[in-house]
Design brief:
The protein is of the alpha+beta class. It has 3 domains: 51 residues, no CATH class; 69 residues; 111 residues, Distorted Sandwich (Glucose Permease (Domain IIA)), CATH 2.70.70. It is built from 5 helices and 16 strands. Strands 5, 8, 9, 10, 11, 12, 13, 14, 15 and 16 form a 10-stranded antiparallel β-sheet that branches. Helix 4 packs parallel to helix 5. About 3% of the residues have low confidence. The protein binds zinc ion. Zinc ion binds next to loops.
Length: 297
């Protein structure tokens, strides 16, 4: 009988590692008194034994990144599945595929699942899912990078058109500064002109027209040579990276170090310095870079 059980062990499945019999005694008696066909009785016993036995079976589990995904009964089958999946998966994503030898209770084993085709499908589904997620992330990252580059490019284009280099975030709001004179005619805008680059705007008006501080701040210069370049001019620092300049004045009403408020009368329109007629030349600088005043007033 023991021999039969041993045979059963090897015949049932080569992967069976252990058989523990729970209910034997009853059948011992029957075996002794058996007068009929002994082999039939033995068969009956064996089938009973199989039903009542705790059978453990050796399986080869395939793990995807440490997670059990399938199992087959043969190590080379498991290896073949992994090899094929690796060959068919073209991605730079590193996925860990391992085989682990395990013992499982026969009742836990789903025979269908040990089929190598099904095991391959299960493992492959998990691998492809991971690849898909990874690709999605890569695409999203690339799109974000492109958006960032585009924004950077736009910023560069913008700053080169206004003649500033490497400007950081700033507030460019219309109305941030007030017009330095009331009315007047714009006779020369900011930017390129025949004789080089015009660093501000020219607003022509009658001699003596009041010039106002475009915003509150501190006078950092008031003076100049009436026969040269800016003539008599005023510079105001507004404390937020911005400075304004008012040139060709006939009169200066403020002096260096003086605090002024927005709209305060600081001088009068003239034609001192390099000027062909009465006007105020008005400039705005942000962090040392000249800006187009028309974007601000
Ligand atoms: Zn000018």
């Amino acid at each position: 009988m023991q021999e039969k059980i041993q045979n059963l062990k090897s015949n049932l499945d080569e992967n069976i590692t252990d058989i523990k019999i729970k209910d034997m005694p009853e059948y011992n008696l029957e075996l002794v008194s058996g007068v009929e066909n002994t082999s039939a009785t033995e068969e009956k016993i064996l089938s009973e034994v199989t039903e009542n036995a705790e059978i453990t079976c050796k399986v080869f589990t395939i793990k995807v990144d440490g997670k059990e995904k399938a199992y087959v009964k043969n190590k080379s089958e498991a290896e073949k599945i992994i090899k094929e999946i690796k060959e068919n998966t073209k991605s730079d994503l590193k996925i860990k595929l391992e085989i682990e030898e395990q013992e499982k209770n026969n009742k836990e084993i789903n025979e269908e699942k040990t089929d190598s085709q099904i095991a391959k499908l299960d493992v492959n589904a998990e691998v492809q899912e991971k690849v898909k997620k990874y690709e999605k992330k890569q695409i999203a990252a690339r799109a974000a990078e492109n958006r960032r580059k585009k924004a950077e490019q736009e910023k560069k284009t913008q700053s080169s058109s206004t003649g500033q280099k490497g400007a950081s975030a700033k507030v460019t709001s219309k109305g941030m500064f007030m017009r330095p004179i009331s009315g007047g005619t714009l006779t020369s805008p900011y930017g390129k002109r025949k004789s080089g680059f015009h660093t501000g705007i020219d607003l022509s008006s009658k001699i003596g027209t009041p010039i106002y501080a475009a915003a509150s701040g501190t006078v950092i210069f008031a003076g100049g040579n009436p026969r040269k370049s800016y003539g008599l001019y005023i510079k105001i620092d507004h404390g937020n990276g911005y400075q304004t300049l008012y040139a060709h004045c006939s009169k200066l009403y403020v002096s260096e170090g003086q605090k002024v408020s927005k709209g305060e009368n600081i001088g009068a329109v003239g034609s001192t310095g390099n000027s062909t007629g009465p006007h105020v030349h008005f400039e705005i600088k942000y962090k040392g870079n000249r800006q187009n005043p028309q974007n601000y007033i």
